[in-house]
Amino acid sequence: MLTRFHVKNFLCLKDVDVDLGPLNIFIGPNSSGKSALFKALGTVSRLLRYPLRGDASGDFNVEPGITFDDAVWCGDTQLPIIFELWFDNNEDDTPDYYLELRRGYPGWSVVSEKFMFGGRRIDTGVEGFKMPTLNGEPRILSGPFRATLAFLTYHGLTNPKIAPYLEPIRKIREQVGQARRYRPSPSDISQFVKPMVVKGITRNTTVDENGRGFAIELQNTWKADRPTFDTIQKELCKLHPHITALDFQVDWRGTGILYKTNRVAFGTPASLESDGVLLTTFLLWRLYTSPINFKLCLEEPENGVHVASLGQRYQSLKHSLESFGNSKGVQILVSTHSRDLLNAIDSRPNILSEVRVVEFAPDTGTKIYNLNHWRQIDQLLDETRNQIGDLWWSNRLASHT
Predict the structure, then answer these.
(1) How buried is 4 (Cβ within 10 angstroms: 0-12 exposed, 13-18 middle, 19+ buried)?
(2) How does pLDDT run across 60-105, given as a tens digit for each residue?
(3) Which end of the chain is more exposed for a tag (fewer CB within 10 A), N or C?
(4) Could you tell me what percentage of the chain is helix, strand and coil, using 3-state DSSP and rounding each to the nearest 5?
């Protein structure tokens, strides 16, 4: 599990250090840096799987059409972008993984990676990397690199002679895991989806951040992993008692979700079901089908949910994490600018360690900090009741930490 994350010069994150647990609630106004943090996590995870440059699809994009030239702090391409990560069982201040990117003549490159390798901490920016080959003669890779070592050496993991040597790199990749940012939309979740067929071959449909493509993926779970699908269905029926089962509708439009309920004799198409049910279905699928060390970055979970049900939404997220135990290392990061979510949670002391306040100042960028006492949560709620903007920009809460 990722326990600490440090970012420099990425979007509005000029110099941000944040501690992370299984469930993390980031609360702050619009444009304070909540989404930027989620994008930073997603960028690190993708950099271990895709090159910065030289790929057939072009240079690395933070998101479609956005390169590192756009993402560096204040557009200053002379600045490095740095990511540092700490994982479980790290007892000192040295990060388990350090990644530094800089822009040169060819474009953005990896100028330094630091991590434990072969019993010592290496720095590829100083010594390069000794890459084993099939003929037994090692090859020295010298930077700057067009990609991280996790990408450059990935082919070596398929060779039984080379794979043991590359185990520390494979472990870093696994510990970082995947991070996906979602702002699920009921209309996108309920859409019919057609399988993607390229040159006669059916490819997996990816689910985008709004939920488009969800129906096919949920159906694939039903086909390939029935126990997980049954768990999703059981939890959904528990949270929304009028739902009795999940089903699918297939016609000329593609595949859509059908809900069986105790209200009508026939199934209810997803587009006619409530937003809350659709969002719950999506979240349950995403949590229970997540790979190891997955980071679910969820924006505005209060959308589509009645105020009276927000406490239930929080409890369902907690319950999903508890059902995994520590086996999968799944983490949930929630961003909100609504006081209603915190107000709906009864136990202030229990969520104190989960709440992070996010603020932004033009000169120093985003600041993220924990609260020290549960009464600060009440203070946060009271002071934002009428004039939410004044509190965030005044930095008054920070003075109490």
Answers:
(1) middle
(2) 888 888 899 999 999 999 999 999 999 988 778 899 999 999 998 8
(3) C
(4) 35, 30, 35
Asked if residue 266 has pLDDT above 60, the reply is: yes
Average pLDDT for residues 226-231, to the nearest whole number? 95
Give the residue-averaged pLDDT of 245-262: 93
Helix residue spans in 86-129 (DSSP H): 124-127
Q: Which of 269, 282, 213 is nearest to 260 (CA)?
A: 269
Q: Which two tokens stand for residue 139?
A: 């090859």
Q: Can you give the residue ranges of every domain in the chain?
A: 21-32+292-401, 49-176, 183-290
* pTM of this structure: 0.88
C-alpha pair distances (Å), 219 with each of 223, 228, 243, 272, 349: 6, 12, 18, 19, 40
Both structure tokens of 228: 């997980």
Sign of the CA dihedral running 218, 292, 227, 201: positive
Give the closest residue to 384 by CA, choosing from 28, 25, 26: 28
Q: ω into residue 144 within 30 of 0, thus cis? A: yes
Q: How far apart are CA 83 and CA 164, in angstroms?
A: 26
- Alpha carbons 259 and 238: distance in angstroms, whole number: 14
Give tens-digit pLDDT for 24-48: 999 887 888 999 999 999 999 999 9
Cβ-based burial of 169 (10 A; exposed 0-12, middle 13-18, buried ≥19): buried
